[in-house]
Amino acid sequence: MTVIIPSLVGFFVVTGVILTLVSAIGVVRLPDVYTRNHAASKSATLGVMCVLLGTFIHFYAVEGQFNSRVLLSIAFIFLTAPVAGHLISRAAYYSGVKLWKGSNHDDLKQKIEARQRSNE
Amino acid sequence: MRTNDIIFQTVTRVAVFLIVLYSLNLFFAGHYTPGGGFIAGLMTAAAIVLLLLAYDIKTVVKILPINYISMVGIGLLLAVGTSVSAILFGKPFLTHAYDYFQLPLLGKQTLHTAVAFDTGVYLVVVGVTLTIIQTIGESE
């Protein structure tokens, strides 16, 4: 018990920090807005959730305190961070940010053109 | 061009309740833990601002038909009334009192007049924030 809890907490916190670092490297390294947004919204969400889960386990097992706010914030981040990524990507697309030159498939463009044609 | 906001609006419907619940938690926990009327008021205002972002201003007025200016007035009246009522009991201005009560369902609890003062702060903060935001949002 005295070994399991700290190693579990350490595993979650270290994993979360590594995932957040991976997402930061992704934001710096990836070529265009959409791929960068993909890195930032997915990996950072899971990283923050892992850190919060480690925090929750630490305070529950070591201090004996059931902190429901941390659980609520895990649920809240899981709910809202992907939606924020979606809205940022969509705003970027509609304001005319170009895709990376290596990408060759654009479904949304065909949809928008079809909708514009049906509106006319 | 009209865009489709269904993801944002659906998440807003769930998230607004979470934010309001958390702001009520901050409000009632303010005596013993970090929190209180100010931050709870700001968070409730943030929940309503999220509604304003997801829907337009007319829909939000239909959902919450509140006159925020009179809300500021009620909050100020509540705060001043709590402070003045101490004078009626022969104590200095702003003296607070508390006592223990046996409440149904909740058991033995303390009721403190500072909560009434904090409710005033809460109403003023929500009212002022939303008055500012709605006034800026409507003037086009």
Question: How would you describe this structure to a colleague?
Answer:
The complex is a heterodimer of chains A (120) and B (140). By secondary structure, chain A is an all-alpha fold. Chain A is built from four helices and no strands. The longest helix of chain A has 29 residues, at 33-61. Chain B is mainly alpha-helical. Helix content of chain B is 67%, strand content 9%. Chain B contains five helices and two strands, in the order ααααββα. The radius of gyration of chain B is 18 Å and the shape is globular. The two termini of chain B are 19 Å apart. The A-B interface holds A 69, 72, 75-76, 79-80, 83, 86-87, 90, 94 and B 1, 3, 7-8, 11, 14-15, 18, 22, 25.
Structural classification of chain A: mainly alpha
Q: What best-fitting shape of chain B do the alpha-carbon axes yield?
A: globular
Largest sheet of chain B: 2 strands, antiparallel
Q: Which pair of protein chains has the largest interface, and what are the residue counts?
A: A-B, 11 and 10 residues
Strand content of chain B: 5-15%
How many DSSP helices of chain B? 5
The separation of the N and C termini of chain A measures 69 Å
Strand-and-helix sequence of chain A, N→C? HHHH
Q: What is the topology, as strand order, of the major beta sheet of chain B?
A: 1-2
Q: What is the chains' assembly state?
A: heterodimer
